[in-house]
Amino acid sequence: MESHDSPGVVDSKFGTLGKAWVGFLSLIIFGGMVAWYQQLQTGLIVTGMRNVFSWGLYIMLFVLFVGLSAGGLIISSAPKFFHSDRYESLARFGVLLSLGCITVAGLLILPDIGRPARIYQFFVTPDFRSPMVWDFAIVVLYGLFNVWYLWLLTRRDLAARGSALALGTEDSAEGRERDKKVAFWSAAIALPLAVMLHSVTGWIFATQVGRGSWFSPLVAPTFIVKALVSGLGLLLVTAIIADRFTNFEFETDLRTRLGKSLGVFLAVHVVYLLAAERLPHAWAANFDFWAITSGFLIGETSFFWLWTIPGGAIPILLMAIPSIRKQAWAVFTAGALAVFGVIFEGVRLIFEGYQAVNINDAPGITTGEYAGMGSNIWAQSGVYTPTLIELAITAGLTAVGALIVTIGFYYLPIQRRDMVKKSIADGGSDE
Amino acid sequence: MTNYGMVIDLERCIGCNACAVSCSEENNVSMSQQWNRILTEGGESMDSPAGSYPTDGQDGTLSMNHLPLSCQHCENAPCVKVCPVNATTKRDDGIVEIDYDKCIGCRYCMAACPYNARVFNWDEPVTLPTDGTGNVSQREQGVVEKCTFCSHRVDEGLDPACTVACPSDARIFGDLDDEKSTVSRYIDQYETDQLLEDRDTQPKTYYIRGEMSPGRKRSGNELEGTEQKETGNPNIVSTEGGD
Predict the structure, then answer these.
(1) Of B84, B105, B114, which is closest to A130 when you measure between CB atoms?
(2) Which residues of chain A make contact with B41, given a CB cutoff of 8 A?
């Protein structure tokens, strides 16, 4: 137990382990830069993408990281909007995590673009009919909002610390009171902004008539729930790691309660929304009762099973049993599996769009890869395996996000002792 | 207003690929790509029929048809609507065009096109001869490209290269807004369908199936309703059309 009589800011001190971690991240980032340089030199031919399967790992992970950015911001803004101190001890950490994720999401677009030097065209001649323009705007807005919100939540403590990052803000009791009001109004913006971010990202796909199951009104609501699942999962995993390796504190009862919420979100996502998506198709396509049932319950791809069993059934089970969800390892595992599952749900979405071709008569579509006279340039369906270069670039960008969170953790007052105390006093009546 | 469209008589089409070859040649298309593809409606591979051979005095069930497929220049073109930077636009005459200097290569348009009409330059384009062919300059690596209805030729009052190249007069190009144009009259007179009509893209390429049309007798390269061009050599496909 910490001593409650010193409600100051928790100092983050990095030992050898912290330095090794930063060194490790730098190495991954360096690897990503080398791979990216190679891709810029040679072109997107070094990826596994071709004409039939024209979006790959970058977009799959863009979707993932947009979702991951949800958990932190929602957990820190929702209680503030309802004037509650419930998750106060996680509030700043959540926004920092959210900022790290949205930065990775934004950066992941860059290596996917064929001519990145022309990205300024987004500002010069945007077409406001394009869902990508909506998404570009909202990702930038969301990122900037996270910066503002993180600063708002920490500026008085930064001032008290005498940090230059306070940007002239002074620490005073009235100032802190005023900040609470500003935080309420900021939270009132944060929630619709988060809903918009995930919906618009869903609409990038849901507006498209040409790519199989993408064209579904269910995509946007699913993106919101999937953001809650993966965002909360990542928050739990990282908070448990921070609690374990730094003097950041993640209270046991808070962890248990959030673990239970994760179970509920998972059930809505993997059980309810999936059923809502599959049942009408299974019913319409089959005649016998058992044929309808198996069409409904049995998925066709490995991505489906990776998503629903390790990414759905197992974490739901872990969080459903009260004695298990009290354990840190169980919440950690459930959070990690929830993120794992959502990765494959995103992979599945892209595969469903590109695997089958609407008009697939022979010889098919040219792939865009020419290996000399007599080589086959045709394909009748989409196949995709990410290349090492794609993996290295995405790993590097993910490490950038981890580095942002690590640096933020080091330089910002991420937690105050009195926040932890309050949370414990508030929520002892859970079980 | 002019609104260009095309009629392709699938009953006249013999699947010779002359239109595909002339397209690649005229438009300087890389060896890794084809803007204009001739699909075989039939068996598993190109130019193979579906069904079985006649045996033991029975009738066979062999059937095969060809489907030339390129950009449909849709009225409600999803590719135009998704382009974030306005690089893909619709001209006043209805031709869907790409500004290759503007395209950022995000490939959202490829996701949007239900016909897979668009191709991306993943690699440096390869042409034979190496310095290119035809009358259109080479696209750079990293941009999306597709059929333009040979807008550079249309601007000079010439028919698209594929239309001129067709030996069986299966392709007719013209103004859909002009009731007297051959395309309008053929759409009126013959049973035509558009590809993937259920997607509401309103494609402007109409396919005749069932009853064969007489085809439009060709005597030159000229766009219908325009006067004979001095520069146009009716005996060859390539002309001094633009660029």
Answers:
(1) B84
(2) 361
Q: Give the number of other CB atoms < 10 A from CB of residue B152.
A: 20
Q: How far apart are CA B71 and CA B78, in angstroms?
A: 12
Q: How far apart are the CA of B31 and the nearest CA of chain A, in angstroms? A: 6
Please name which of A155, A88, A190 lies closest in space to residue A412, comparing C-alpha atoms.
Answer: A155
Q: Is A111 exposed, middle or buried (0-12, 13-18, 19+ CB in 10 A)?
A: buried
Interacting residues of A82 by C-beta distance below 8 A, sequence separation 6+: none
| A210 Cβ under 8 Å from any chain B Cβ | yes
- Per-residue pLDDT tens, chain A, 431 aa: give them: 333 333 466 656 677 888 999 999 999 999 999 999 999 999 999 999 999 999 999 999 999 999 999 888 888 888 888 888 778 889 999 999 999 999 999 999 999 999 999 999 999 999 999 999 999 999 999 999 999 999 999 998 888 887 888 888 888 888 888 888 898 999 999 999 999 999 999 999 999 999 999 999 999 999 999 999 999 999 999 999 999 988 888 999 999 999 999 999 999 999 899 889 899 999 999 999 999 999 888 888 888 888 899 999 999 999 999 999 999 999 999 999 999 999 998 899 999 999 999 999 999 999 999 999 889 999 999 999 999 999 999 999 999 999 999 999 888 888 887 777 554 544 444 43
**Which of B63, B74, B110 is most worth mutating to test chain A (most A CB atoms within 10 A of its CB)?**
B110
ipTM of the complex: 0.90
Whether the CB of A211 is below 8 Å from some CB of chain B: the reply is yes
Of B222, B94, B104, B235, nearest to B160 (Cα)? Answer: B222
Give the pair of three-digit tokens for residue B6.
């095309």
Q: Which chain A residues have a beta carbon less than 8 Å from that of B110?
A: 51, 54
